[in-house]
Specification:
about 325 residues; alpha/beta; 2 domains; eight-stranded mixed β-sheet; 9 helices
């Protein structure tokens, strides 16, 4: 009898409010790593109540009491140890639960959702923790667009739901940003009006905490003549941070230089990682250099974490 090797996945946690861009970011990372090596688990599947029940109870899915956090934490612990789980599944299109899903660990697991960093037990399962923090007007536009086109809501219903959810967003979702290694904030530049929906030209601000060994991009940033990449040092909540801003208007050449600078910090894995970077879909498919560079930075950290795990074994 042949006993298979246990796969202890490297887990990336992506947390953010509803329609903050979690799925777009995680989908691109899976495409880069390959579906045979990476899987996605959505923590929204651990809701206690379906959409109709939440309306009757007057509770939002952002409230921890509306979720089976204990089962979520248990499943994260099992997956990190290389054990499969039978997890619930929530169908956002129907607002109800479907058949459970059997999840077998792969080398990389992306866990995305609303409350993934809420408990310390959950936070300990991740090798990399990311919080998505777009400005509120942009997130509201994204949520209206998504919920109207994909989930059967009217615009008035989405706006009303946003107002209802705001107290829970402030109480439970936004405080989780302080547990992140990296905060990702896409935002419209001065020359791009958010309401135009031109997401290809959104800027990104990356807040990098010292909880991870980030790649040194100082030389390529200093050599950039486009003025589209900026690095600054600062402090947040008593912690030293580095800020990197990348303009959506960054030229192809400057973006390629940054991509290759990140890749140069990896001993293996070359240009193959550059194939599906930066793809997003709103009313039309598009490509964003800031999104591509953000995805590549996160893939860099996942591969580095994998290397460290292998060296320790």
């Amino acid at each position: 009898m042949v006993i298979g090797t246990t796969i202890r996945p490297i887990i990336l946690g992506i947390v953010g409010d509803s329609a903050a861009g979690k799925t777009t970011l995680s989908r691109g990372i899976v495409q880069i790593l390959g579906t045979e090596k990476a899987a996605v688990l959505c923590t929204d599947d651990y809701h206690r109540y379906n959409r109709q029940q939440r309306r009757e109870l007057g509770i939002t899915p952002l409230n921890p009491a509306c979720n089976y956090l204990d089962i979520m934490a248990q499943h994260l612990r099992l997956l990190r140890a290389g054990e499969p789980v039978l997890k619930p599944h929530y169908d956002h299109a129907r607002g109800d639960f479907g058949p459970p899903q059997y999840i077998v660990p792969r080398p990389f697991l992306i866990v995305e959702g609303l409350l993934g960093f809420y408990w310390q037990e959950m936070r300990k399962a991740y090798s990399v923790r990311v919080y998505l923090d777009p400005p509120e007007p942009l997130r509201r536009r994204w949520k209206i667009q998504r919920d109207v086109t994909r989930r059967g809501y009217t615009e008035a219903e989405v706006l009303r739901e946003l107002d209802i959810r705001e107290p829970d967003s402030a109480a439970y979702i936004r405080p989780q940003r302080y547990h992140a290694d990296i905060i990702v904030s896409f935002f419209p530049g001065r020359s791009v009006r958010s309401e135009q929906g031109n997401d290809a030209h959104l800027n990104v601000r990356l807040t990098l905490y010292g909880t991870l060994p980030h790649p040194d991009l100082s030389e390529v940033i200093a050599a950039d003549r486009s003025g589209c990449v900026r690095a600054m040092l600062g402090r947040e909540a008593g912690r030293a941070v580095e800020y990197i801003e990348i303009d959506g208007s960054i030229p192809d050449e400057a973006a390629a230089a940054l991509e290759h600078c990140i890749l140069d910090h990896l001993d293996t894995h070359g240009a193959a990682l550059l194939t599906d970077l930066g793809q997003y879909a709103d009313s039309r498919a598009g490509h964003s250099h800031p999104l591509a560079l953000t995805q590549l930075l996160l893939v860099y950290h996942l591969l580095r974490a994998k290397q460290r795990d292998e060296e320790e074994e």
